[in-house]
């Protein structure tokens, strides 16, 4: 089913025009014939479209990867560790969105890491880019049909828990879906049971064995004092939060706040993938009023902290993947 087009009014194109972040016609213009869908009528991608994208990747790479990785802001180097990489620019993948955010290169990298077959998104899609949630997390379904069993999702986030320092890593053991509170979900629209049930349960979404293994690895790396286990919340962005919002999130038990991951995890759990996710704390969120300029988050700082901490993040991910691979060998 080439030529499928999601008409959501977001103006992104993955074709030769490569429209990044402009407002124009909807959906994709990759030269294929297109069927018309609107976000209201059909915010989801038909199974056959996902299947077609997955075929493009598995045939193009000659691989059926077992582990999928989504690189957070500034954490694209996770994908640079992949050996014998086959690289797919998002623009060249049929019916794929394009990345519009600095620190998100917009490439899918398929290869091996610590002996395991992996596919990594060097660049994710965010709600604030104008993409509906189903489109933001569509690549997770592509991963599923490529053969992926484990999703590793990483993100840059603001630390709300006062015990967190910049550069710490928070292993996610739960989330608060603020976009869901507002009536938005990547699973909205018709449900295709080939992916999963209409009403999926989300308790135990974050795999406890993987969290425990990651803690052991962090101890072996000597970074256990920089590791926390906590609750992440995704807001729509692109603005960072007000003090009142941060206070409210803290009262709700949120430890770190960002603009991604939750809808990817929901989509992954819907199709029964095992999930491991972590937040790199790139800035401390103030929960009291002050005149300090330091309290203002900014993307340059987020990127700089991610760059400084990429070595530790890469080691954590690669050692965990090695354990998964050895356990299944
Ligand atoms: O893709 P992630 O969630 O890592 O990116 C975070 C959220 C925004 O995209 C950006 C803000 O600095 O970083
Ligand atoms: N929403 C949000 N996203 C972030 N990404 C990195 N830092 C932050 C933050 O403070 N808030």
From TrEMBL:
A purine D-ribonucleoside binds at residues 241, 283. GO terms for molecular function: guanosine phosphorylase activity; purine-nucleoside phosphorylase activity. It catalyses: 2'-deoxyguanosine + phosphate = 2-deoxy-alpha-D-ribose 1-phosphate + guanine; inosine + phosphate = alpha-D-ribose 1-phosphate + hypoxanthine; guanosine + phosphate = alpha-D-ribose 1-phosphate + guanine; 2'-deoxyinosine + phosphate = 2-deoxy-alpha-D-ribose 1-phosphate + hypoxanthine. Phosphate binds at residues 73, 104, 124-126, 156, 260. The keyword Ligase does not apply. Residues 1-38 are annotated as: Disordered. It comes from the Eukaryota. Pathway: Purine metabolism; purine nucleoside salvage. One of its GO terms (biological process) is nucleoside metabolic process. InterPro entries: Nucleoside_phosphorylase_d, Nucleoside_phosphorylase_sf, Pur_Nuc_Pase_Ino/Guo-sp, Purine_phosphorylase. Residues 66-322 form the Nucleoside phosphorylase domain. CDD domains: PNP-EcPNPII_like (cd09009). Residues 8-29 have a biased composition (Low complexity). The keyword Transferase applies. The purine nucleoside phosphorylases catalyze the phosphorolytic breakdown of the N-glycosidic bond in the beta-(deoxy)ribonucleoside molecules, with the formation of the corresponding free purine bases and pentose-1-phosphate. Belongs to the PNP/MTAP phosphorylase family. This is Purine nucleoside phosphorylase. It comes from Drosophila melanogaster (Fruit fly). The lineage of its organism: Eukaryota, Metazoa, Ecdysozoa, Arthropoda, Hexapoda. The gene is c62E-15.
């Amino acid at each position: 089913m080439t030529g499928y087009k999601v008409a959501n009014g977001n103006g992104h194109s993955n074709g030769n025009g490569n429209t990044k972040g402009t407002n124009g016609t909807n959906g994709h213009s990759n030269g294929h014939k297109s069927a018309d869908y609107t976000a209201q009528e059909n915010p989801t991608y038909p199974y056959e479209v996902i299947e077609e994208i997955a075929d493009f990747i598995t045939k193009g790479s000659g691989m059926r990867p077992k582990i999928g990785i989504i690189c957070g802001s500034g954490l694209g180097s996770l994908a640079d560790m992949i050996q014998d990489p086959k690289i797919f620019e998002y623009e060249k993948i049929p019916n794929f969105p394009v990345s519009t955010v600095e620190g998100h290169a917009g490439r899918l990298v398929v290869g091996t890491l610590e002996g395991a077959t992996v596919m990594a998104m060097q660049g994710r899609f965010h709600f604030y880019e104008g993409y509906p949630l189903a489109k933001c997390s569509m690549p997770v379904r592509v991963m599923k049909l490529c053969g992926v069993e484990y999703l590793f999702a990483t993100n840059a986030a603001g630390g709300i828990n006062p015990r967190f320092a910049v550069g710490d890593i928070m292993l996610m053991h739960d989330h608060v879906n603020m976009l869901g509170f507002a009536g938005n979900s990547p699973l909205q629209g018709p449900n295709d049971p080939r992916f999963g049930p209409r009403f999926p349960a989300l308790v135990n979404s974050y795999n406890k064995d993987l969290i425990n293994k990651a803690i052991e690895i962090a101890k072996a790396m000597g970074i256990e004092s920089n590791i926390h286990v906590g609750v992440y919340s995704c807001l729509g962005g692109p603005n960072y939060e007000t003090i009142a919002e941060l206070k409210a999130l803290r009262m709700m038990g949120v430890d770190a706040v960002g603009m991604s991951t939750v809808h990817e995890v929901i989509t992954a759990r819907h199709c029964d993938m095992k999930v491991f996710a972590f937040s790199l704390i790139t800035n401390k969120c103030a929960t009291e009023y002050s005149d300090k300029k330091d309290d203002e988050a900014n993307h340059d700082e987020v990127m700089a902290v991610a760059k400084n901490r990429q070595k530790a993040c890469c080691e954590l991910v690669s050692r965990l993947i090695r354990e998964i691979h050895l356990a299944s060998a």
